[in-house]
Amino acid sequence: MSIVVMKFGGSSLATADKIRAAAARAIAAHKKGKQVVMVVSAMGDSTDHLVDLANQVSKDPPKRELDQLLATGEQVSISLMAMALENMGVNAISFTAAQIGMLTDDVHTKARIKSINVKRINEQLDQGRIVVVAGFQGVTSDGAITTLGRGGSNVTLVAIAAALGAECENFTDVDGIFTSDPRIVPNARKINSISYEEMLELASLGANVLHNRAVEFAKKYNVAIHVRNSNNNRKGTMIVAESQDMERIVVSGAALKDKLAGVTLRGVSNRPGIAAEIFHTLAKAKVVIDDIVQTIADDRTANISFTVDLGELNDAKKVVEGLSKKIGCQVVYEDHLAKVSIVGVGMRVHTGVAERMFSALAEAKINIHKITTSEIKISCFIDREKGKEALRLVHDAFNLGGKKSAGK
Ligand code: ASP
Ligand code: MG
User: Fold this and answer.
1) What is the DSSP letter of 50?
2) In what order do the strands lie in the sheet with 137-139?
3) CA–centroid distance, residue 48 to ligand 2 (Å)
4) Superfamily per CATH, domain 3-173
């Protein structure tokens, strides 16, 4: 019998009615003859409320206790879901991560899954029950409760689907993955299928749909994820391994990250080891770097620029002030940057892609401060105030939407 693992996010479980609706969906699949596992998140934004509470009683909550607290959100959901299922006439049983041996390392608040024992799940499925599993949580070999990082129920979903060799459905409150953020780009379209690589690039660019670790996990175990809307029956987006026909499409999506800051070290002596020293110092101070560009200034010096999230700029400044004195260079900060990017595996085989993107920005007189690329991505740094307009223009330039949305 085939197994389906259905995950419901917080927004799809925000009320008792929504819990019953999710239960009805699982029952429909069960009636069609499938064995069903549900992975559920905490109701609505209850995890945020728990974090809030923790911060009210402590300036720096111990991470072990934070996990102990946050995991309760999912425990509420699994028990309510199992009750709803039973009430609707189907046998069900709920499990916390510890009860099914979802073992993780002991890095609290961002633990990694080490192994899952699906024996208990399989036994229950074979008895005809719908099995409801708590997302987001794990347990260490010492029995401490861990969590997998915010949004981590998607990681649970993929891990369980991989372990069971099951179909994998991710229910949320939108129709799937879009060519761009529909709140900014009104003519953004739902994508039917997208590769793991593209999805990873889009997520890191701020598309914010699926936890990157869930996609990495899915890629590693070749699990196809169906992202779909819990409020309708439409087909959503399949996140799958890259196939040749995907290359026919030049660009799959466009994304905007609009709270970025730039740091440029000018006149850095051009010798082996200097970049290593700079980025070692930044890494030691736990500053997360976005993109890096180095260019030669003259025979003896180079300019090294990097970008960080605006929120990290102060931390970066502290480090860079010290560094610039030590290595003798000038520093320039920019706190007004945004990054507009296009992503598509088709870029590998099509020409003129960069030109088309740059022309779209040029026509609207949007100045590009910096460009970075990967094999399947082109990013332009521009002024933040032009970010949204740029996103719409680039989206139109590659005909990603149905009709034009016009820049402004
Ligand atoms: N409830 C957790 C969170 O809000 C996990 C999840 O929703 O995936 O981050
Ligand atoms: Mg949540």
Assistant:
1) H
2) 113-115, 103-104, 137-139, 145-147
3) 8
4) Acetylglutamate kinase-like (3.40.1160.10)
Distance between CA atoms of residues 258 and 262, nearest Å: 12
pLDDT, one tens digit per residue, over 190-246 is: 999 999 999 999 887 766 678 888 999 999 999 999 999 999 999 999 999 998 888
CB 9 within 8 A of CB 43: no
Give the confidence band of 253 by pLDDT, cuts at 50, 70, 90.
very high
According to DSSP, residue 299 is labeled: S
Tokens encoding 195: 């590769």
Choose which residue among 47, 50, 145 to substitute to test ligand 1 binding: the one with the highest number of ligand atoms within 8 A of its C-beta.
47
Domain 254-397: give its CATH superfamily. Answer: VC0802-like (3.30.2130.10)
Domain boundaries, the chain: 3-173, 254-397
**How far does residue 382's CA lie from ligand 2's centre (Å)?**
32
Please name which of 187, 174, 193 lies closest in space to residue 12, comparing C-alpha atoms: 174
Q: How far is CA 95 from each of CA 148, 155, 264, 301, 329, rounded to the nearest angstrom?
A: 17, 16, 51, 60, 58
What φ, ψ does residue 379 adopt, rounded to 5°?
-120, 135
Q: Is 64 in the pocket of ligand 1 (CB under 6 A)?
A: no
Predicted model pTM? 0.89
